């Protein structure tokens, strides 16, 4: 069958393939182990591996590659299962393609033609197969095998499955790879040997495609310190993309606590499908490439040619249609793309049916002509429907004339008209009186049009270059973006056009156009509010470009306050993060206040995702990408400095502030120009150029401090010789020592140009792929750091060994995730607060605590388990928030595993007193569960309490008292008291009353179930109970001689029988010392509580049973 052309690496492939036929442009190859000449060691090995593969998934034995005579690059274009099938493809190429290729002059044209033709063939074949779904019967069979082999909860959703080989050392195991919502699973059974593997997506550190000597390509998975390799896929790229999407979905859902409310296909983990994942990935890629709002989804795609009037040629590409935008991106290397908002379209015509063409007319007397559109009538109707345009004959005739005239009238005379329409298009309207309507640079440094010094003349020349560009390529959102556009950006944007172009290239112009008045409403709602974010904003306001005149006045400070406060109000998940003030202050210099707000939205939510949060994950990921690029491009530097973590610490501010914090403002804005056009790729390129420029100094440096000094001196000497700004506006970079430097001055334009020339060949797609590959590792590294911090704190309070604590943490964390795997409404997800300390990041609600505690508690409770776990949960929940953290959990286990007899009895004693045991008097008290985050289950939870312990009707329990607000000051005070509190004395414990004592005795009975000395233990408890009661009666008779012994006996009997008619005048209680002294008189009880616990065995049992416990719920 025909394959989508993909570049392949033949470095190791010649060991696996034999060339059968070849010419100047195509090669037909046979895989070793098939057909003639299948002998030899290599042939036997390859043949053996391939015969183990399932017929639907094994590597095809024949393939055709495309190559031009003067190129070393090969492209796979076809594969076949038989010699006859591949020969048909070969014959078709010889008859239909070979004769045509001789007319082309360049190799690139030949490759583009072949790729386009193959894609066309695939599209034709797709018309027949697009309506066919995966065989539901086969999927049902696979689902049954999946459930049988892995014994996962039935709620676990199988997404897809593939036949592949899993490598155990140098031996491949042929089997099936199952990809579900939360797990990667593999099963193989050959010759009596079973291989079973289950890996949670949230446990994966690395996921990447690799190649080695034996296999050309495989998928490498690093999880829990172990490497796993999977190979022999028929569609390896498809498999890898699905795995990558599932891993990313798991990371966002479990670590970032994202709920995907705006993505219906991913909002329910029980309904995840392969198609939904692919659609989500496609939409994200579409929005990122064209910088569109997050509400836009890719609806339809058409291949076509676009007539480029200024270059007088047709460029091949794809039309991408969403609900509100028509976008085009070339695929022939011309780097041309254009975005047309539907709000700007005024007509759609079909002037030439023979060429399957249509013309889209937009405001500003402009038109775009698309040709060779396969389903051009459907496209035309789709555009009309989205724009509300009718195709009446009168409308068609008049519009067609307008379109024909305007296609060739894109002259300079239209410049003023276009700019006015751009202003209308972005929805500018009368803003709130509090909102500034001018860029600060316009207010504090108005351009003097009569000033004709050399710098101003050069600035005018730049403006004229851009005006010519506008006349040829258009202006506003429907402007063509090409190589020439990037060249102008690299040379520097004129001061007067900077704000407009930032809005255009970032996509903020579209956000602002579709949300008129939104910013003014946010300002009205947010000003005057007092939050942690607003306090931090006020603290940093006067640290934002303090040397610039605009921020030495109330005008600039007030505008900065409004923008930052409005954004914190809009996006409380981010709120405010340091470095946002520096970025926003620069945006306000060149953009109006509302425009600066939307530029900040574009940066934080689209162009630099996950940069501005508590863990700055996005910046750390890009630093990991930066390190990878350093190894690829600056090998001389990596040979000298094997540990590149130094560059991560140095470059953090480069990424967070787009070099604004290290470069003078007049130079930094040129970097921001490139960033808004090329995204993070521009920052990575510039970072490489800076290191490359200082290569000699960095190599000769003796330590990190000297290397930092070299880089700081370099940044201090970066200038912008073309900047028209006066010295009062120009600023020194942060860290400038204001001393004359002996280093040569470096012009920012030359530095940026060098960055594009040396490192501009990297593609945005490659950068995104590297981001995804490194994100897993960065997040897991942060998680590991958090774990080490938690274990360091907890280890000081418990007697567990380091390895035991590590195992306990893994069990606790996994139990936390188990509460999130199959629902978006988990309490720990809904009430997750990323600002909490690392001890509070992973917590368990009562249900999850019960499951894990039941696997780890050292005794075999025969009955009353639920009550015991409930009392333990309430006792450990020190802050009464309905959640248990790892420290609280470990301290309880430490008492039960390694505590003394006294400590174990004290724990059991306190279980039966508030807040442990719930009595009739305190079950309605709002302190019981008022702050429990499990709000969706409160009524059922309370009913559970009452059914378990009392006979109070459910109507008596009010849910109004369950809603509470955590007092931050109280929380901090409690934490301080916790640190300072002394060891609790047994004399400090309150006395246990009669009902509590009876329940305490019952609990002791339940602990002994299954013990070898069970009967002796029962008798011992009976003797202790009898002794305590007699002691109490003796004391009572000494105080009240008239009190008969019979009263105590009847009272105790009534309690045991659960009777409510108990004489109220009889009250007795015991102190802990009395109970302890009585128990110490029974050697069998002492042996029971002092018996050592096999902690490794309990941990191993919990590891093996954790998922099954969830399954059997």
Automatic annotation (TrEMBL):
Gene: TBC1D8B
Superkingdom of origin organism: Eukaryota
Record domain EF-hand: where: 864-899
Localization, UniProt: Cytoplasm, Cytosol
Source organism phylogeny: Eukaryota, Metazoa, Chordata, Craniata, Vertebrata
GO CC annotation terms, alphabetical: cytosol
Organism: Esox lucius (Northern pike)
Keywords linked to the UniProt accession: Calcium, Cytoplasm, GTPase activation, Metal-binding, Repeat
Pfam families hit by this protein: GRAM, RabGAP-TBC
Location of the Rab-GAP TBC domain: 492-679
Main location group: cytoplasm
Name of the featured protein: TBC1 domain family member 8B
Subunit structure: Interacts (via domain Rab-GAP TBC) with RAB11B (in GTP-bound form).
């Amino acid at each position: 069958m025909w394959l989508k052309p993909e570049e392949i690496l033949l470095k190791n492939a010649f060991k696996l393939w034999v060339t059968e036929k070849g010419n100047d442009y195509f090669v037909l190859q046979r895989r070793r182990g098939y057909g003639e000449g299948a002998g030899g060691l290599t042939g036997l090995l390859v043949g053996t591996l391939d015969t183990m593969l399932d017929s639907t998934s094994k590597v095809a034995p024949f393939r055709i590659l495309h190559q031009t005579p003067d190129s070393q690059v090969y492209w796979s274009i076809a594969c076949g299962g038989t010699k006859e099938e591949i020969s048909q493809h070969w014959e078709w190429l010889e008859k239909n393609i070979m004769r045509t290729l001789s007319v082309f002059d360049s190799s690139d044209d030949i490759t583009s033609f072949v790729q386009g033709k193959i894609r066309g063939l695939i599209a034709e074949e797709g018309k027949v197969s697009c309506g066919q779904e995966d065989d539901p019967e086969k999927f049902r069979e696979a689902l049954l095998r999946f459930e049988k082999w892995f014994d996962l909860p039935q709620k676990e959703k199988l997404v897809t499955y593939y036949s592949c080989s899993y490598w155990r050392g140098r031996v491949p195991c042929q089997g099936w790879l199952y990809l579900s919502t939360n797990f990667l699973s593999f099963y193989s059974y050959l010759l009596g040997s079973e291989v079973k593997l289950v890996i949670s997506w949230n446990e994966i550190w690395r996921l990447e495609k690799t190649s080695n000597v034996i296999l050309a390509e495989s998928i490498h998975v690093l999880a829990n310190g172990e490497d796993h390799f999977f190979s022999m896929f028929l569609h390896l790229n498809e498999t890898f993309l699905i795995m990558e999407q599932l891993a990313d979905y798991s990371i966002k859902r479990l670590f970032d606590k994202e709920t995907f409310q705006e993505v219906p296909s991913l909002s329910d983990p029980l309904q995840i499908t392969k198609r939904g994942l692919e659609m989500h990935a496609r939409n994200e890629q579409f929005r990122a490439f064209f910088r569109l709002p997050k509400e836009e989804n890719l609806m339809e795609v058409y291949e076509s040619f676009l007539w480029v009037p200024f270059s007088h040629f047709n460029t091949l590409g794809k039309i991408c249609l969403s609900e509100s935008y028509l976008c085009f991106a070339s695929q022939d290397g011309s780097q041309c793309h254009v975005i047309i908002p539907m709000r700007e379209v005024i007509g759609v015509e079909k002037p030439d049916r023979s060429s399957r063409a249509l013309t889209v007319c937009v405001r500003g007397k402009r038109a775009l002509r698309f040709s060779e559109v396969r389903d051009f009538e459907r496209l035309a109707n789709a555009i009309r429907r989205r724009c509300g345009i009718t195709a009446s004959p009168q409308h068609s005739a008049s519009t067609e004339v307008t379109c024909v005239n305007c296609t060739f009238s894109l002259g300079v005379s239209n410049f003023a008209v276009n700019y006015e329409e751009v202003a209308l298009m972005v929805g500018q309207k009368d803003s709130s009186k509090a909102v500034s309507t001018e860029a600060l640079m316009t207010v504090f440094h108005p351009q003097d049009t009569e000033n004709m010094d050399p710098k101003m003349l050069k600035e005018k020349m730049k403006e004229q270059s851009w005006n010519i560009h506008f006349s040829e390529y258009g202006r506003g959102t429907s402007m063509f973006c090409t190589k020439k556009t990037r060249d102008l950006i690299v040379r520097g944007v004129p001061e007067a056009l900077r704000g407009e172009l930032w809005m255009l290239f970032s996509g903020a112009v579209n956000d602002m156009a579709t949300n008129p008045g939104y910013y003014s409403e946010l300002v009205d709602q947010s000003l005057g509010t007092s939050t942690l974010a607003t306090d931090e904003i006020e603290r940093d306001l006067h640290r934002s470009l303090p040397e610039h005149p605009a921020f030495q006045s109330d005008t600039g400070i007030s505008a900065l306050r409004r923008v930052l406060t409005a954004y914190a109000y809009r996006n409380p998940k981010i709120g405010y993060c340091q470095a946002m003030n520096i970025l926003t202050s620069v945006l306000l210099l060149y953009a109006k206040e509302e425009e600066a707000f939307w530029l900040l939205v574009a940066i934080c939510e689209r162009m630099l995702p996950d940069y501005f949060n508590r863990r700055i994950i996005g910046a750390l990921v890009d630093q990991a990408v930066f390190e990878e690029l350093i190894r690829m491009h600056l090998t001389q530097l990596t040979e000298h400095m094997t540990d590149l973590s130094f560059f991560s610490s140095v470059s953090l501010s480069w990424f967070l502030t787009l070099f604004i914090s290290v470069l003078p403002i007049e130079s930094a804005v040129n970097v921001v120009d490139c960033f808004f056009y090329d995204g993070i790729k521009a920052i990575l390129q510039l970072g490489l150029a800076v290191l490359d420029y200082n290569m000699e100094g960095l190599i000769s440096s003796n330590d990190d401090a000297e290397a930092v000094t070299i880089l700081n001196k370099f940044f201090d000497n970066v200038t912008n010789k073309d900047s028209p700004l006066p010295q009062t506006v120009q600023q020194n970079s942060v860290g400038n020592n204001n001393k004359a430097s002996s280093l040569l001055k470096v012009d920012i334009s030359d530095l940026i140009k060098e960055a594009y020339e040396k490192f501009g060949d990297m593609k945005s797609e490659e950068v995104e792929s590297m981001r995804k590959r490194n994100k897993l590792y960065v997040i897991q590294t942060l998680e590991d750091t958090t774990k080490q911090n938690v274990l360091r704190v907890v280890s000081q309070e418990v007697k567990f060994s380091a390895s035991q604590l590590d195992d306990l943490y893994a069990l606790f964390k996994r139990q936390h995730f188990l509460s999130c795997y199959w629902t978006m409404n988990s309490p720990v997800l809904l009430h997750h607060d990323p600002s909490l300390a690392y001890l509070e990041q992973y917590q368990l609600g009562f249900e999850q605590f019960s499951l894990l505690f039941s696997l780890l508690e050292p005794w075999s409770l025969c009955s009353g388990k639920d009550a015991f776990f409930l009392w333990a949960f309430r006792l450990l929940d020190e802050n009464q928030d309905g959640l248990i953290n790892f420290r609280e959990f470990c301290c309880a286990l430490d008492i039960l595993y390694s505590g003394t007899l006294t400590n174990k009895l004290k724990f059991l004693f306190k279980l039966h007193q508030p807040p442990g045991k719930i009595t009739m008097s305190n079950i309605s008290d709002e302190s019981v569960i008022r702050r429990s985050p499990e709000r969706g289950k409160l009524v059922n939870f309370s009913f559970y309490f009452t059914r378990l312990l009392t006979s109070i009707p459910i109507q008596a329990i009010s849910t109004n008292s369950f809603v509470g607000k955590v007092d931050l000051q109280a929380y901090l005070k409690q934490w301080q008291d916790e640190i300072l509190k002394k060891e609790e004395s047994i004399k400090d414990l309150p006395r246990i009353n009669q009902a509590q004592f009876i329940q305490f005795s019952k609990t002791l009975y339940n602990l002994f179930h299954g013990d070898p000395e069970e009967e002796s233990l029962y008798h011992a408890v009976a003797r202790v109970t009898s002794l305590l009661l007699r002691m109490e009666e003796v004391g009572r008779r000494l105080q009240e001689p008239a009190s008969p012994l019979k009263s105590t006996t009847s009272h105790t009997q009534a309690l045991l029988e659960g009777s409510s008619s108990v004489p109220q005048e009889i009250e007795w209680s015991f102190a802990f010392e009395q109970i302890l002294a009585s128990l110490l008189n029974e050697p069998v009880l002492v042996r029971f509580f002092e018996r050592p616990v096999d902690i490794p065995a309990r941990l191993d049992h919990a590891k093996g049973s954790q998922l099954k416990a969830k399954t059997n719920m």
